[in-house]
Amino acid sequence: MAKSGSLSIRVVEGRALPAKDVSGSSDPYCLVKVDDEVVARTATIWRSLSPFWGEEYTVHLPLDFHHLAFYVLDEDTVGHDDIIGKISLSKEAITADPRGIDSWINLSRVDPDAEVQGEVYLAVQLLDDARGRCLRCHVRQARDLAPRDISGTSDPFARVFWGSHSLETSTIKKTRFPHWDEVLELREAPGTMSSLRVELWDWDMVGKNDFLGMVEFTPQTLQQKPPNGWFRLLPFPRPEDSGGSLGALRLKVRLTEDRVLPSQYYQPLMEMLLESVQGPVEEDTTSPLAVLEELASGDCRQDLATKLVKLFLGRGLAGPFLDYLTRREVARTNDPNTLFRSNSLASKSMEQFMKLVGMRYLHEVLRPVVSRVFEEKKYMELDPCKMELNRSRRISFKGTPTEEQVRETSLGLLTGYLGSIVDAIVSSAGRCPLALRLAFKQLQRCVEKRFPGVEHQAVQSIGNLGQQLGQGKELWLAPLHPFLLQSISRVRDFLDQLVDVDGDEEAGGPACALVQPSTIVREGFLLKRKEEPAGLATRFAFKKRYFRLSGQDLSYSKTPEWQVHSSIPVSCIRAVERVDEGAFQLPHVMQVVTQDGTRVPHTTYLQCKNVNDLNQWLSALRKASAPNQDKLTACHPGAFRSGRWTCCLQTERTAAGCSRTHSAVTLGDWSDPLDPDAEAQMVYRQLLLGRDQLRLKLLEDSSLDTDPELGPGKDSGATDETCTEVLAQQRAAITHLLQVLEDLEQAHEEFQKRGQGQVVC
After folding, report:
1. What superkingdom does the record give (predicted)?
2. Which of 359, 628, 633, 647 is close enough to 638 for a disulfide, judged by CB 3.0 to 4.6 Å?
3. Non-local CB neighbours of 454 within 8 Å, separated by 6+ positions
4. Across the strands, what pairs with 98?
């Protein structure tokens, strides 16, 4: 069974960064790496030493990951970007607090000797003979070493230390995947026992050699369990030395791991959850949903809401689930102006439902306008505190424009873009998913029932849009008020159209997946190259094609409108991996390895436009091919060119892959497939946190049973028989829920002893 976890990452902001440009500022951006693989790049914040990013990522990854790193760089138009500093977080540091990390962390200097990566394969034997003790170290190979040379490769050799003796392997030129297969023998005097240290170095003809990493084994390890296998390379131990002089980042990081049992173990809990939304709402205090609503804290409420929405979506009961939470929220709200203003489970669940069901609709409606804004790259700013006149020089041919000129030009541009956005939104009611429209209609009915009357019509339609214009702190937005006021009636009409829908289908009706197999999950232009095009230079071998990925195939054609297209069945994909830049002297290249009925592998190379585009395509392809059997565990990160692999220098095209594949590393997003077992597992974990409260409530109900005068319903004039019946129902519900939790806990203990179960986020 696959084992994986989930990292929730938020790169919030930076402060006190050093100036790297002659202007006295910097243009910082942040790279996020998991075990030396770039998984995300933030936007560049121009001319700022205190940048705000506010970017969030969810990374699904295997449990054997070791560290997370953040590199801050200064983007330069000419030449290489300057490295400002880094933050490295070990898995142990992230998991030290169950809530994760949420703090300012100082940047450290990037030390080349500490920038190590990769693994080395060793087999060690200890032998005793008449001359003393002999250590035989078989240095087989290494993989994924750091590139130290300008060519993007290294010239690695290994140096083995044992006691006062040392030996070296041969040097293998121009590779990050060396194969030595050399046995080095070292001897020690009888009665002594030292640690073993193996260092890897990059040989340089001029200057000193570059450190690539090391591993070390204690005498106890050598005697009890001699090393035999792959070992992760480590840097030389040395203290951090920044002291805050390089600035700091504010980061939020949380690792989630859990063991998921087979589906049948969650059936009792699932039945209780489904029964919760069918029963009475206001009086419910003991159902799993009522308990979750009371227990969920701000830190985990959004994750819990996402899991619950997915769980009920998969059962076709998202409508009753949202209605249950909405009625509870509305029932305890006295002031309609505060409705859904809190971070309640109801508001978070509706928010996540809209994201999961409506994200594609949102992209379709707004993508053309947003793309145009980015393509035109017009400078716009109304806030006088942030206005940069030098950046607006092209607005006027008479030198630097005045603040008033920039404001007038920005107002015209903003009004034009906003007009296009409003036009796109108000004309899209018919394209809005039916599940969303039904959910909005049910929400409106619920609010109308709780707050009837003309005075609450604003609450029931569009809230207080337009009522607070000119009363806020951002008075520099006042020039936009006429446009906003003119748009209010159009937006109100749009909202009325949204809820003017008939249909008996429940909101979020029957669904097995958020994205159906035929749905396009990603599309765009990529540069495509076949394995070995004859007679073409590398750059000319890549052809621009428009790609579309669905759950069924990866198709491509010359243009989006082109009728003739080719396709790669998703079921044939065996690996989706990055390609070393040195393979084609091109950045952002990935490979899709497929096998057809003949079992012969074929590789398609695709170049993306930037690192984020690369990561998103890698993630989408890995998710689409996740159910495939016989996926490769290793592949070549280079290309077979001129009769050998550029990565490991092997001369056989069919040679086994030299690098591990990373099928478990993906980016979380709205199109992730439903996983009811993983979702039920998180619900179970949250309920476990409230088990003591449930037991206490059971004791309280028992005491009330002995004193009927204190029982529920006495204030409303209920009879003793009614009170006794209510108490009995509450006790039965709590007892049942506690038993379900106990059964799941026992199942986890049994599976843990047997080493089974699926570990996921």
Report:
1. Eukaryota
2. 647
3. none
4. none
Tens of pLDDT along 520-544? 889 999 999 876 554 445 556 889 9
Residue ranges covered by each domain of the chain: 2-109+244-256, 119-232, 317-391+401-499, 520-668, 679-705+724-756
Three-state SS annotation for 40-82: EECCCCCCCCCCEEEEEEEEEECCCCCEEEEEEEECCCCCCCE
Is a pLDDT exceeding 70 seen at residue 192? yes
Residue identified by tokens 């994205």 is 515
Q: Is the pLDDT of residue 572 over 90?
A: yes
Bridge-based pairing of strands 82-90 and 132-143 is unpaired
State the pTM of this model. 0.79
Architecture of the domain spanning 520-668 = Roll (2.30)
Phi-psi region of 562 (alpha: psi -120 to 50; beta: other; left: phi over 0): beta
First to last CA, the chain: 14
Nearest Cα residue to 243 out of 89, 108, 50: 108
Roughly what angle, to the nearest 10 degrees, separates helices 288-295 and 298-314?
150
Strands of 119-129's sheet in order across: 179-188, 132-143, 119-129, 228-232
Q: Over 60: is that where the pLDDT of 398 sits? A: no
User: 144 near 37, Cβ under 8 Å?
Assistant: no
Which tokens belong to 713? 């319903």
| Domains 2-109+244-256 and 520-668 agree in fold | no
Question: How do strand 28-34 and strand 37-41 relate by DSSP bridges?
Answer: antiparallel
User: What single string gives the DSSP state of each residue in 231-276?
Assistant: EE-BPPP-----TTTT-EEEEEEEEE-EEE--GGGGHHHHHHHHHH
Q: Is the pLDDT of residue 299 over 70?
A: no
Q: Does domain 2-109+244-256 have CATH number 1.10.10.10?
A: no
pLDDT score recorded for residue 761: 43
What would the DSSP string read from start to end of 592-647? EEEE-TT--EEEEEEE-SSHHHHHHHHHHHHHHTTT-SS--SEE-SS-EETTEETT
CATH assignment, 317-391+401-499: 1.10.506.10
Based on its alpha-carbon atoms, the radius of gyration of the chain, rounded to whole angstroms, reads 31
Question: What does the pLDDT average to over 228-234?
Answer: 94
Q: How many angstroms separate the CA atoms of 441 and 446, rounded?
A: 9
Q: Which two tokens stand for residue 699?
A: 């004791």
Phi-psi region for residue 229, left (φ > 0), alpha (ψ -120 to 50) or beta?
left
Kindly give the pairing relationship between strand 165-168 and strand 119-129. Answer: unpaired
HSE-CB at 651 with a 13 A cutoff on CA atoms is 0
**659-660 and 228-232 strand pairing:** unpaired
Write out the two tokens for 24: 């006295």
Q: Given pLDDT bands bounded at 50, 70 and 90, which one contains residue 391?
A: low
Quick one: which of 276, 273, 284, 348 has its CA closest to 314?
273
What b/e string do you get for 360-390 counting C-beta neighbours within 10 Å, with b at 16 or more? Answer: beeeebeeebeeeeeeeebbebbeeeebebe
Q: Which residues pair with 509 in a beta bridge?
A: none
Give the burial class of 467: count Cβ atoms within 10 A of its Cβ; 0-12 exposed, 13-18 middle, 19 or more buried: exposed
Give the right CATH number for 119-232 from 3.90.1140.10, 3.40.190.10, 2.60.40.290, 2.60.40.150: 2.60.40.150
Task: Single out the residue of 153, 151, 152 nearest to residue 172, CA to CA.
Answer: 153
- 196-202 and 553-557: which strand pairing? unpaired
Q: In the numeric block, which tokens belong to residue 688?
A: 């476990």
Q: Which amino acid is at 349?
A: S
| Mean confidence (pLDDT) of the chain | 84
Q: How many CB atoms lie within 10 A of CB 118?
A: 22
